[in-house]
Amino acid sequence: MAFIDILPASSINDEVRAMYARQEAHWGFVPNYAKVFCHRPEIMGLWAQLQIGIRRHMTKRRFELVTFVAATALRSTLCSLAHGKALMEFVPEEDVLAIARGDTPVSLSPAEVAMVSFGRKVARDASSVEAADVEELKRLGFTDGEIFDIAATAAARAFWTKLVESLGVEPEPPFRAMSSVLRQTLAVGRPMDFADRP
Question: How confident is the model at residue 134 (pLDDT cuts 50, 70, 90)?
Answer without folding.
Answer: very high
